[in-house]
Amino acid sequence: MTRAIPDLSKPVWTSKLVAALERAAAAIGRLDARVCVSPVAAPWAIRASWTGYATALRGQSVEIDEIDIFGQECAIKLPGRPLIPTHTEDPAALHEWQARLRQREPHYWRDIATMPTAVGEDWNRRPALLRTLEVTAHHARADATIAPWLTFPALLRSMAVTRATLPCLTVGDKAMRLAPREGEAIILRNLRGLADRADEALDRLQALEDHRLRTAEAIRAAHRPGRLLELAALVQFAPVVSPRQIAQRLNMTLSGAGKLLARAADLGLLAEVSGRMAWRAYMAPDIAIAFGYVTRPVGRPRAAPRQLTELEPTLTAFDREMVALDLVLEKFGVISPAEEPIS
């Protein structure tokens, strides 16, 4: 007799499952609360979409790491990384998903994913996170494409788990399709994975906010800041850059762009990750550490500036520059900063 596929929203409760649900809900709640008020929410969402897309690709059995999506979307071949397979998914899928992420209006969950009309009478009283997993599992069994994994952040918002759409919180669990009867294992694995990704995303959001403050401090202290502010704002959206790209986007000479990047690296605003490549490449310091290109400094990290009153004019200019970049990207209908030169 074939065993029925369990309903992920109505599990057999155990202490492990309760603890995993509590941790995931708390981690997602902390991230959501910070994103809703963060001055760097726009660039964070771009980076988070690359992270989430890599997770979804792995759910499609694509052997890929997050760093490869970062390099591809910033249009830079990173040292020591293989070429991304070209036969896996529609190349436009990422940008189409990013365009949907920009939509401000929330959608009813039935409009987002495939789900049978009939649900239990107690459906709305079940934990929202588990309901989201159940809808995703149904969607994944009905649709073999990457779409079910990518709809998870929108489902979280439609289920009122989050106020913001958090692109890093995709799933990519092949067992939802291949071994759907392993209900408890699927729930525990995904709850723990969501909690881990939410915690990591919060750390990266904090790093972006610290980078914004350190940039303002460095520009204020500089005798001649030049175009450091424009560069730093661009790096928030495109954390992997090269002199050639900066020369194109900021309408500079190649030599001038190289000197600007070297100056930013001397100030600790960028980290060079060129390795043995003939051309230079730079990363935002937190990303360089996360991807293993730079060793984490020994000891307690340098604290971000606390006295913000003196930095307020510089921060205002910096935020204005980021808003302008975000509007340019939205105008072109893409999130990737590598798609169009910004002048």
In words, what does this structure look like?
The chain is an all-alpha fold. The chain has helices at residues 15-37, 41-59, 66-73, 93-101, 109-112, 128-142, 147-150, 152-158, 175-178, 183-221, 228-237, 243-249, 254-266, 285-290, 312-331, and strands spanning 240-241, 271-272, 282-283. A 3-stranded antiparallel β-sheet has the order 1-3-2. Helix 10 packs across helix 15 (312-331) and helix 12 (243-249) packs across helix 13 (254-266). The radius of gyration is 21 Å and the shape is elongated. Residues 332-343 have low confidence and may be disordered.
Number of helices: 15
Pattern of helices and strands:
HHHHHHHHHHHEHHEEHH
Low-confidence stretches: 332-343
Oligomer: single chain
Instruction: Report the sheet with the most strands, covering strand number, pairing sense and barrel closure.
Output: 3 strands, antiparallel
Distance between the termini: 66 Å
Q: How much helix is in the residues? A: 40-55%
